[in-house]
Amino acid sequence: MSQKAVAVAGATGVVGRQMLHVLEQRNFPVKSLRLLASERSKGKTLTFRGEEIPVEVLTPESFAGCDIALFSAGGGTSKRFAPEAAKRGCVVIDNSSAWRMDPEVPLVVPEVNADRIKTHKGIIANPNCSTIQMVVVLKPLHDAATIRRVVVSTYQAVSGAGSAALEEMYLQTRAVLNHETTFPCNSFPHRIAFNCIPQIPGSDAFTSNGYTSEEMKMVNETKKIMGDSSIAVTATTVRVPVHTGHSESVNVETAKKLTAEEARELLRNAPGVVVIDDPANQQYPLAIHAHGKFDTFVGRIREDVSHPLALDMWIVSDNLLKGAALNAVQIAELL
Hints:
This protein is α/β, with parallel strands linked by helices. The protein contains nine helices and 13 strands.
């Protein structure tokens, strides 16, 4: 790969820092690196390959001379600045939801639809974290047996809501264990410590059909990434008091019968997927084991006793890596 001038927008955030980590760990050919953030991060420095690099305030001119920009700065920022970057000849890989369903913008998971990268017009969208790990597993099953319907329930880690949410979980946990009756509750509408919230708070909201926006992202993004609008998808997304690592219970109905062992064999040979499926010895994917790993893990693969053409499975991945930073860097590598 040739050397590239790279910018990271939202560099001081949880995902932005992970992007730097992944660029370094995968030895991405960075010729120069520009770290961009809001005014409140001015004066900070971040370390990349042993060098302290100052954080600059994000402006349209920040992208002059850059080849690739990794964005993790929120939808509003992406809507404003991604076109400015593209106008200056910089290809944007955006981690927000701002461009995902734009018909002119490819929505890419390299293991699933890498060919879509070629159609970009300056902006490429990174999918929702929960969608990414699911479609990596669904793709080989769809190719082999054609998926008709997907029912997914997610168990999403607090790190997906950012560093303030993580700190809130820690403070609440300490308060509950100390039998305190008051504690901070700003990032979520309810206490997250020792609790599960059937909504992914933040930008997530309930829509007119009773689903949350996070759930509808999984519905719509799955169809777009898989390139098949006929796949029926329904989702329930839940925030759980886990630091890092999203887990998913997924039921897949196919047009052609797949046995559990056939599915395991397909997935053992799938890129980016690791099968851990020995429940007799308590071996199945766990969030604590996925933390810091690049792969997506799948296990508890079994034939649905209620449907002759359906399978159940359990999928786990690091939401900050494959669910965000890693997927974006993989797209950059393909560029």
